[in-house]
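[09:14] KT: can someone run the structure on this one? pasting the chain below
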Amino acid sequence: MDRMGVLLAAYQYKLGSCFRCPRKSTQVTRIGEITSGDGETALCACRECVQELLTRYERSMEQMDTRPRVVQLARIKASRGIEAD
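[09:31] RB: done, structure tokens below
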């Protein structure tokens, strides 16, 4: 598996809608959130958009001649209430 494949496989996906593109009822993963006084709204992206965002990040790091840092993925609660890595 190539480096991008490893990165994409590290995320946990579930059925949902992508905030970046018009894909609905597709496999998405939580990549962040918007926080306001009313609470928190999850931002989920599909596999294709996650790949595009990771590629853009790596290219920007190359242009700045900076080595990409390892990003800690958020922990997601498993269905049994046990935290998954």
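[09:33] KT: thanks! The chain has two helices and five strands.
[09:34] RB: yep, looked fine to me
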